[in-house]
Design brief:
With 856 residues, the chain is α+β, with helices and mostly antiparallel strands. The protein is built from 22 helices and 36 strands. The N and C termini lie far apart (81 Å).
């Protein structure tokens, strides 16, 4: 193999998301006279299949062959993506021709068949979207004449596209070429680089589309746009085998933080992420949606970290244990002979005080020496961060607010690290605990007023006392309790707003671009989180959250102008921006701050807010006049805008649609408002009753998809969307309605992916794909229970529970192929979905027991 080609393959092997695509004839199989006997080269196909088994790698075969031929030669599992007829046929999608195209295909087939019959060396092949004239078996004069006559006869017909290949000419009745097919395959895979190998003239369409990071390889002679050339099919196998070997080695060495082993700390004003090995890898100060001081989670070491680990000489192959100290957010990381306890100080009412003073406490205990590395990086590392050694610790320079690290007795070494500085020290806790206190908003390095043990005890009581008042289900009680604690940890104490997650830009596909900032409050998500806590007996957070919502609504020009997202303080978000200097989690770029969805229209937001008030009313809590005013405002918003299209719950960055879920949640708003009115006043507004009926009639008539026999994502669209499960979970449709059962069946069959459920498979304008969404898994569990499929629901819940390994902090999604958690960490949706699913299962179990008791 040429040295320059080997170098390009080596570079390609290290791209975050790789697509490897090949032509078939002349690339994976030798060219033969009889196309029906073009059997594949076993070594080449085996190498391509092996590449497809490597994480973050997609393999594809893109051929002019009909799909039926490809399936006969390589089988349905020959590649993850099988494309035939130059891009007109996709294995899982088939080929859809209009009636006019079918007539055209028959006309061309008849003409080409007549020409092929003139000489035994000629043959024709009818494909789903075209007709091929093969001339390989004919003499050159006969071949040239046949091609010329065929082009004269068919090439001038409107709607027919001529494709020239090696000893073949093809007449297509659809606009398709391999270049566009590879572009689409690349988009769907989210590939950051592509290798394409081909030998044919039609493969030049692909070569011309490839960019500087891609690799184009031509097989055999002939003019080409490819920069590299190999001799034949045997060499194709060599290239694929070499790439596969290099790719496997790179993946094996790829250092990716295990999100399932990450934990969080909270003081109800900000949240820290602790990566495995007692590393503070994410911490925004002073609020959860402020700029980060430590951001190595999404930017590597240059973005800042704070690590405590065994000193050099310790056997690093031993994984430390990571667990919380009971029902708290005091985290204990422990190696043999060394123990680190981390927490954010939430004592003395700090959780409800204005953000501005934050204390991170780290306690080192044991008999083994420890190494400390303290690398703060102001504003995600955009501001040069310098350190000054003081008598009792370190002072961080460059910040508008004072920041110090109190570390009495620790001897620091300061080293320059680019434009920043990092402090390192080795300590021996054998003679007593070593306490480190990172103080944000304070310049003092004097001892705290209270001993660390006293502060720790108060913080433990803060969390465990709250958790102890919850009404937990008997099954999965520890997981439900941890989920409830996470929802409390995401609650911004000063206002009651509940953040969607603790992080930004943890990717929904490793190496991809689906990276979003979730450190803000979506009124919809926050209401759903507060409702889950109400179901566990906690109403305080719901009350405070509703106060926050009311303040936000009062600042709106009108209730129907409620934005989808706000800061936890109730303000508008700054424009979405990208942090171009950060490397991203596992190379997933860009790293974003802010969220452009704040300016979308999401008409489902009013339903969860109203439902939360209704839940409180049904539990006998007094509904204040302001809360009733909020309910009326939500109904007014629905009256004004329910008939409009919107961007929907999933925030697709596409045109507005009439989303079924949004319409159902508008119905839900009015339905639950009537419940509140009935409970509080004993009446029901007839205007609201009529509005509820009108919305329901609209959804029933326009949301039903006749072709699929179920409710789909939006009016007039065929894509399946897990959010339509709201039609049964809200009571919009009764559990015994056949349309509800059909919808559950369709979502289950189309969107289930291993132990999880995807949101949708619709193209949303973004490259790549995402994992299954935990909230959708929770909805499916509830839906299955509602239609009497309890065994399926229990199995799915067990799979859901298995995702809560380690410290039990859920991400947004689960990648069913790589079997890893993906998406932002400490996701409110995920934890509230688990809570609701467990409660639903418990309710069904009680009903079954009650039913058994009534039998004679």
């Amino acid at each position: 193999m040429q040295i320059d080609l080997l170098e390009r393959i080596s570079t390609l092997a290290q791209t975050p998301l790789l697509l490897v695509a090949c032509d078939y004839d002349g690339t994976l199989a030798e060219i033969v006279v009889n196309p029906a006997k073009a059997f594949c080269n076993q070594a080449a196909v085996a190498a391509l299949k092996g590449i497809g088994e490597i994480p973050w790698t997609t393999n594809a075969i893109v051929s002019g062959r009909a799909m039926s031929d490809l399936l006969r030669f390589v089988g349905p599992d020959g590649a993850a993506v099988l494309v035939g007829s130059h891009g007109a046929e996709w294995q899982r999608e088939g080929t859809l021709l209009a009636s006019s195209q079918r007539k055209l295909l028959n006309q061309v087939a008849e003409a080409v068949a007549k020409i092929a019959a003139e000489d035994p060396g000629l043959s024709f092949e009818l494909k789903p979207a075209g007709v091929a004239l093969h001339v390989r078996g004919a003499s050159r004069p006969v071949a040239a004449a046949a091609i010329s006559r065929a082009i004269d006869c068919c090439g001038s017909i409107a709607g027919v596209r001529v494709q020239h290949g090696s000893d073949v000419v093809e007449f297509m009745v659809v606009e398709a070429n391999k270049g566009d097919a590879v572009k689409l395959a690349r988009h769907r895979a989210g590939a950051t680089a592509v290798l394409f190998i081909g030998d044919d003239l039609t493969d030049e369409d692909v070569f011309r589309t490839l960019g500087p990071l891609d690799l184009a390889v031509r097989v055999g002679p002939g003019p080409t746009a490819a920069k590299h050339r190999i001799g034949g099919v045997v060499n194709v196998a060599e290239v694929l085998e070499t790439l596969g070997s290099l790719r496997r080695n790179w993946v094996k060495k790829r250092c990716i933080t295990a999100l399932e082993r990450c934990a969080i700390l909270s003081d109800q004003r900000t949240v820290a992420v602790v990566s495995p090995g007692a590393t503070i890898s994410w911490l925004c100060l002073p609020r959860i949606d402020s700029a980060a001081l430590f951001a190595s989670l999404v930017g590597g070491d240059s973005a800042g970290f704070f690590t405590i680990e065994p000193a050099p000489g310790f056997d690093s192959s031993k994984q430390p244990s990571i667990q919380y100290d009971g029902a708290t957010f005091l985290l204990v990381t422990e190696w043999p002979g060394l123990r680190v306890t981390d927490y954010l100080d939430c004592s003395e009412g700090r959780a409800y005080q204005r953000a501005g003073r934050v204390d991170l406490v780290r306690v080192i205990e044991g008999k083994a020496p420890a190494r400390i590395r303290f690398a703060p990086r102001l504003d995600y590392g955009r501001v040069a961060t310098r350190l000054t050694v003081r008598a009792e610790g370190l002072e961080i320079e460059g910040s508008n607010d004072p920041i110090v690290l109190r570390s009495p007795g620790v001897v620091w070494t300061i080293r320059d690290d680019g434009g920043h500085q990092t402090a390192e020290a080795t300590v021996d806790p054998a003679s007593g605990p070593i306490v480190l206190e990172l103080r944000y908003g304070a310049a003092s390095l004097k001892p705290a007023l209270l001993p660390e043990q006293t502060v720790r005890t108060k913080c433990k009581a803060f969390w465990s006392g709250w958790a102890g008042a919850l009404v937990l289900p008997p099954k999965y009680s520890a997981m439900v309790e941890r989920g409830a604690l996470v929802l409390k940890a995401l609650t911004y104490g000063p206002t009651g707003a509940i953040a969607a997650a603790a992080t930004t830009s943890l990717p929904e596909q490793l190496g991809g671009v689906r990276n979003w900032d979730y450190r803000y409050c979506w009124p919809r998500d926050g209401a759903m989180a507060a409702a889950a806590l109400v179901r566990l007996g906690n109403t305080g957070h719901a009350m405070k959250f509703l106060d926050w919502v009311l303040e936000v609504v009062d600042r709106c020009e009108s209730p129907d102008r409620l934005h989808p997202i706000y800061t936890v303080a109730g303000g508008h978000l700054a424009p979405e921006a990208e942090l171009g200097h950060l490397t991203g989690f596992a190379g997933s770029l860009p790293v974003r701050i802010g969220n452009a969805a704040a300016n979308q229209v999401q008409l489902d937001v009013f339903g969860p807010i109203t439902n939360l008030v209704a839940l409180l009313a049904e539990r006998g809590l007094p509904i204040a006049p302001d809360q009733w005013r909020l309910v009326r405002a939500m109904v007014r918003a629905v009256e004004t805008r329910w008939a409009e299209p919107d961007h929907g719950i999933w925030e697709m960055r596409a045109e507005r649609r009439h989303h079924v879920h949004s319409k159902v949640m508008c119905w839900h708003t009015v339905d639950r408002a009537l419940v509140v009115e009935q409970v509080v006043y004993g009446t029901q507004n007839p205007v609201w009753i009529a509005l509820r009926a009108a919305i329901r009639e609209d959804v029933i008539e326009r949301g039903w998809n006749v072709k699929l026999g179920a409710y789909t994502g939006a009016y007039g669209y065929d894509y399946v969307d897990a959010a339509v499960l709201s039609i049964g979970l809200t009571g919009f449709m009764s559990a015994d309605d056949a349309r509800w059962a059909a919808t559950v069946d369709l979502v289950r069959s189309k969107l289930s992916a291993g132990p999880t459920v995807r949101r949708y498979l619709e193209g949303d304008g973004l490259p790549g794909e995402e994992g299954g969404m935990h909230v959708c898994t929770g909805w499916m569990i509830e839906a299955l229970l509602s239609v009497g499929r309890a065994a399926e629901a229990r199995e799915l819940l067990e799979n859901f529970a298995a995702a809560m390994s380690g410290p039990g902090i859920l991400t947004e999604q689960f990648d069913p192929r790589e079997k890893i958690p993906v998406g932002n960490l400490a996701q409110a949706y995920s934890h509230l979905a688990f809570i609701n699913a467990v409660i639903a299962l418990q309710s069904v179990s009680h009903e079954m027991v009650a039913a058994e008791g009534t039998k004679p």
